[in-house]
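Re: your question from the hallway

Yes, I did run it. Sequences:
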Amino acid sequence: MKKKLTTVDFCGTKEQEEKLVAVIAELKDTKGAMMPILQKAQEIYGYLPVEVMRIIAAHTGKSLEEIFGIATFYSQFALNPKGKVSIAVCLGTACYVKGSGDIYNKVGEELGLVGGGTTSDGKFSLEATRCIGACGLAPVLTVNEQVYGRLTTADIKGILDQYR
Amino acid sequence: METVNIKINGRDYAVESGITILEAARYAGIDIPTLCYLKEINEIGACRLCLVEVKGARGPVTACVYPVSEGMEITTNSPAIMKARKMNLQLLLSNHKKDCLSCVRSTTCELQKLCNEYDVDEHYFSGERTEHAVDDKSPIIRDNDKCILCRRCVAACQNMQEIGVIGANDRGFDTSIGSYFKKPLADTSCINCGQCIVACPVGALYERDDTAKVFAALADPEMHVAICTAPSVRAQIGECFGYEPGTDTEGKMIAAIKRLGFDGVYDMNLTADLTIMEEATEFLGRVKNGGVLPMITSCSPGWIKYCEHYFPEMTENLSTCKSPQQMFGATYKTYYAQKMGIDPKKIFFVSAIPCTAKKFEVGRPNQAAAGVPDVDVAITTRELARMIQKAGINFRALEDEKFDIPFSIGSGAGAIFGATGGVMEAALRTAAEVIEGKPLECVDFNEVRGTAGIKRATYKLGGKEIRVAVASGTANAKKLLTAVKNGEEKVDFIEIMACPGGCVNGGGQPYQPAVVRNNVDLRAKRASVLYTADKNMDIRKSHENSDVKRLYDEFFGEPNSHKAHEILHTSYVKRGL
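Structure:
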């Protein structure tokens, strides 16, 4: 799936940057260093915005595009930060046959996040997940740690309103 | 040489051990089809067109990356192989915008040629297609709906030029070639060198077509329309009309351009000479007055933008001279306009160049000596050829003609500007005579010739040792400048051209398919035209060019005069990344 570019303002700190620079210094001369550097960067910042990629590019000598290409290839890398209210809709087989595709689209429409992503105020984020092991409750979504099951599209607005 | 014995299509061959099946087959007189393979820079076996059978192998193998071994039996043309290649072509076409009739690459497209040879059904697979917006914000236009993801452009940008502003983004069906965060090329540190365009096998990359503007100006009776052609255009334009690479078609080119209806057709070699007068004087001045050294040449606009992005701390090292293209436009719209009593606003000045970065250069700040842009439109060798074709001019049948006066004389020094080392050699010819005050015994500076990526030499001029270096291709420029910056290398004068081999191998030059690029030394062949022209000229030094002398006598005074500075020099921007 094509990765969505973020519209959330970057708010990285000096401490985070120092941490990242130290990680790069430690790893950059090893073979295939870009993967672990990106993983650590995502650990530090929670996602990989352009500002973080610029730091990595400056300290590794790699081009921004090379870094972006890797970050968009692997599904483990996120270009968007998780929102304060992080919504995950299960698109595993059981949920999907029970209509979670429609649930996913409905949440997307409600939040203006069709196809996933994070609202530009950083409050809501939407992603699709694989099976979360709650097939008995299919279709399910989670909001942060809270699980909502046996959903219909009519339930969505009510759930979201609790967090707005 | 260690050899191995192999069979290709039942015939025995002894070939060098370690080479690929593709190379061995070529030795046997067979060109196995490829779309992604570019020697040394893109050997990735991605397009699956070079499939062949190897006896004992589990399935077809990719010839471009598969090494030969003792006793190997290869079949390149079995029905099963041809069927597999045809299927792969049809799969490529399933996600390809097929507007082949009017595509800029029609007849030079490598995919089209193979589809024709393999008798494909272009609608065999009709399914979902990826859709992309055309990126047309810079002189280099990308239409990903035609991209076949061969990654030749990426290899040219990342591996050859070591710039890397394009790469593969996303994955699987969504994969597309583009820039970081999907930015248009114009917003990246792309230098517009155009090496991606000449690497592309299809019509996914091309230069902005400015020919309509030129045709419109030619049709406007109010406009005085003039053109100058760069040294490398005459050396390569013949390739667009069926001549072998390395054929000089200067006379036919001039005859063809005159038939397009220009009011003046001039030789840019002349302003190459003018550049040398200014640049050699600037260099000698910097040496004498303790100016910033090493001084670096400024003729290649791709190199200029590269310097501004990647070595912004070295922009003071750049010569302030405008490029020959801009000097020509500036001189034309000041000196010539005054002399002939033409309003500069009524002059439409065109330059024909082997370069895509020159399209960017015409819009740069501080390139408008007469208050209007020095050059209105820069068209590539390919665009000029298209204009000639469109106008129905029978290029091959034309009798040779000559450039128009008063800008018809170019020296041999100006001619070699198109090859790596040429600007340096031209500058040395003039600088040496100015310093020594007597004619050179030999005008050939062989140490700076040839297609090596970096060349170095030391010359004794006026009792002083001058260390020079020449780099072509931005990967080599990066290597050289990094060493200079770190103090590992001491140089006084550097020539840099953005394209490997110089302008003769520029991004605006005629397309040559991969099979030619991989097997013919195009850089050397194309450059030989210029060195032969130089050798056969009576005037081989810029300062002996009588047209140039007249320009100084009548207008500029002397090199680096106040007037020359106002009209022939420019400034740079520190861009960073």
